[in-house]
Design goal:
The chain is 47% helix and 9% strand. By secondary structure, the chain is of the alpha/beta class. The protein has one domain: Nicotinate-nucleotide-dimethylbenzimidazole phosphoribosyltransferase (CobT), large domain (Rossmann fold). It has a 6-stranded parallel beta sheet, with helices on both faces. Strand 5, helix 11 and strand 6 form a beta-alpha-beta unit. It is globular and about 70 Å long. The relative contact order is 0.18. Bound molecules: nicotinate mononucleotide and 5,6-dimethylbenzimidazole. The site of 5,6-dimethylbenzimidazole (DMD) has 9 residues, from helix 3. Its EC number is 2.4.2.21. Pathway: Nucleoside biosynthesis; alpha-ribazole biosynthesis; alpha-ribazole from 5,6-dimethylbenzimidazole: step 1/2. Keywords: Cobalamin biosynthesis, Glycosyltransferase, Transferase. It holds the Pfam family DBI_PRT.
């Protein structure tokens, strides 16, 4: 019997460019050579489109780390076992991970969303229960989950984003934790972009040659098994996704619907963001890409999205680490836009 389900529809407005002339004029009239603030200028334009051209401000930027486990991990495609996902979530809650250090440094709130790690953890004020199961099914043998489960994941994300929006948050960071999730993300990238699986598969957490060969086999097998889902992003997510990837895709769609910016972290988060753009192309306007990670595939993926990442530090950490590191650059873009004098005000004549 197949479940009946209602897939949430996300109503996303394109970020109108009708104020662009004013925003560009403001940027160009600041006391600097034209274009001298480089990529901070295009970032300021995007943030002014998002938050208004008069005095755009970030409010309570909040990092959401979506966690989930993957059936394929039993195939030896990672350096670690699935148990490490839950152990790292515990570490997030105890304050000991890279994301804790970087969120602290960047003054960013942090919430962890359990979308389906193997074993649930005891309640904690930072931990949200969005569990869709105890790890996905292995994608090379069957679908990771049902489409009804994808729909539930989207509904959970929409509820969370609604609550954050009510509390005044206007920017989320997108991070993830899931041992084995680069296998799922690589398969999804290949299915969504049509790029060859070779271009989409990297060494994830740092696997050796033997595990890499196995990962290639698994992705090839998964793509072959689920080829009939290609063209339908929700079916592709059900076939190849992870619970945390579904949660992130839902969060992007819900945030864009609420006119919130989304600061995207690394490879896996970018794949989730790409899936969101396949479902609702207008979501692309709300995405800010924090960095190009060291994971093979991320550069091609960013290129596919015509994205210019802010940083390139060869990170391959996940957890939202690159997004937390990039947040100060968003503040810098707004600081120059809101605080710099114009040529006229400063009496500077070029
Ligand atoms: O963000 C990235 O680009 C990235 C690249 C490689 C690995 N990761 C992290 O490593 C884990 C996935 O690696 P793996 O080898 O277990 O598939 C997962 O928890 C991610 O957060 C993250
Ligand atoms: C230790 C460890 C920490 C991580 N953080 C994100 N992915 C990870 C993978 C491993 C293995």
């Amino acid at each position: 019997m197949t479940d009946t389900f209602v897939l949430p529809h996300f109503s996303i407005a394109r970020l109108a460019g009708d104020r662009d002339d004013d925003i560009r004029a403001r940027i160009d009239s600041r006391t600097k050579p034209p274009g001298a603030l480089g990529q901070l200028e295009s970032l300021a334009l995007q943030l002014a489109r998002l938050y208004g051209s008069e005095s755009p401000q970030l409010q309570q930027p909040t990092m959401l780390v979506f966690a989930g486990d993957h059936g394929v991990t039993n195939e030896g495609v990672s350096i670690a076992s699935s148990a490490v996902t839950g152990q790292m979530v515990r570490n997030f809650l105890d304050g000991g991970a890279s994301i804790n250090a970087f969120c602290g440094q960047s003054d960013m709130a942090l919430r962890i969303v359990d979308c389906g790690i193997l074993e649930p953890l005891p309640a904690h004020p930072m931990l949200l229960d969005h569990r869709l199961g105890a790890g996905t099914e292995p994608i090379h043998l069957t679908a990771a989950m049902s489409e009804a489960t994808v729909a539930r994941g989207f509904a959970n994300a929409r509820q969370l984003i609604g609550e954050l929006c009510k509390a005044g948050v206007n920017l989320i960071g997108l991070g993830e934790m899931g041992i084995g999730n680069t296998t799922s993300a690589s398969a999804l990238m290949a299915a969504l972009t049509g790029l060859s699986s070779d271009e989409c598969i990297g060494r994830g957490s740092g696997i050796d040659d033997k595990a890499f060969l196995r990962k290639q086999e698994i992705v090839t097998q998964a793509l072959k098994r689920h080829v009939e889902t290609f063209g339908n992003p929700v079916r592709m997510l059900a076939a190849l996704g992870g619970f945390e990837i579904v949660g992130m895709t839902g969060a992007v769609l819900a945030a864009a619907e609420r006119r919130m910016g989304v600061l995207v972290d690394g490879f896996i988060t970018t794949v989730a963001a790409l899936a969101a753009c396949h479902i609702e192309p207008a979501a692309r306007d709300y995405l800010i890409f924090a960095h190009c990670s060291g994971e093979k595939g991320h550069a091609a993926l960013l290129n596919h999205l015509s994205a210019e990442p802010l940083l390139s530090l060869n990170l391959r950490m996940g957890e939202g680490s690159g997004a937390a590191l990039a947040l100060p650059l968003l503040r810098s873009a707004l600081a120059f836009y809101n605080e710099m004098a114009s040529f006229e005000q400063a009496g500077v004549v070029v």
